[in-house]
Design a protein that fits this description.
Strand order of the largest sheet: 3-2-1-4-5-6-9
Shape: globular
Radius of gyration: 19 Å
Number of strands: 10
Oligomer: single chain
Order of helices and strands: EHEHHEHEHEHEEHEHEEHHHHH
Helix content: 40-55%
Bound molecules: NADPH dihydro-nicotinamide-adenine-dinucleotide phosphate
Length: about 325
Amino acid sequence: MGKVVLVTGASGFIAKHIVKQLLDGGYEVRGTVRRAERGEEVRDAVRPHLSDPARADECLTFVVVDLEEDAGWDAAVAGVDAVIHTASPFPIAQPKDESVLIRPAVEGTFRVLRAAHEAGVGRVVLTSSTVAVVHCELPEGRDAFDERDWSDPEHRSCTPYVKSKTLAEQAAWEYVTDVAPGMALTAINPGFVVGPPLDDELGSSTSLVVRLLSGKDPMLPRYGIPVVDVRDVAQMHVRSLERPETAGRRYVGAAGSMWMAEMGSVLKAAYPERRIATRNAPTVAMWLLALFDGEVRSILHSLGSIERASNARAVEELEMSFIPPDQALRDTAEHL
Ligand code: NDP
């Protein structure tokens, strides 16, 4: 029997790719979902993509748990060899009350780590984000953020989501330092994740590509972010799990950074018949638009800047060769 890995939030866009790669890699997978029927959706989503589709029925089980409730976590971790903790709320529009995101992210991370520690599970890979890295001032003399950098939850560009991811990753490292020093924790910090979903369900990040393709916006915010393909993000999780030397480290997952207008241009070149915006909107227009549009409101304080994050450590230590961001975007659009 293969090693058993618990994947939290198995119904997520990224997690389904992780589940697929784990099953293809010979692991048994236990996924957590919030509702039992979501488990069957995950099974159906991954089955056609597996090299041996029967593994979706033979080697994949589910447990129903919620990040906000204690019930069920002990049973979820019982007998597993490792945990990949991806579950966290990820909305596009930001809530007025930031605790709606921060509480499940931080308390949920504690719950997962505590249950793992108490069950003697010594290996955890955590899905963090570049948003836990880049929301601070770039140290002088550097042109990109990297794993040494930590977002400052009080920084003007922080949204509730940014805070939730930063505080959750900090909580995980603190837990390992203070309570479970024997636990081998690795954090994966992906940028904006695109690439083909395994089924028809759109995550928050792919729905931004839908918005670009829809032509809803005549112009785009002058703002840029690190982009990475979901297949590479899943591979980073699996490779980290398999390499004990990655314990205690963070790994930025980014193929390169793109301005929103560059993303528009890549999609426009692929679909010239569509009305896809490729020009930057004046800043004043974005402030006006933000009055009505929560998605725009969440990036107002980042306008005019492009976040750059170095993937050097992932390339060197995880031997990642990242799918170029324009290809990842085109593959997403083609799937959609
Ligand atoms: P999805 O929204 O597709 O997946 C989020 C997952 O978390 C879902 O399975 C969801 O369950 C689960 N979840 C949310 N709240 C709870 C809760 N209270 N209890 C239990 N499960 C919960 O997003 P992604 O796949 O894109 O994101 C996965 C992870 O990757 C998250 O941690 C996110 O922060 C991180 N990330 C994502 C990036 C991106 O661009 N996509 C970039 C960087 C990091 P349900 O299906 O029931 O809603």
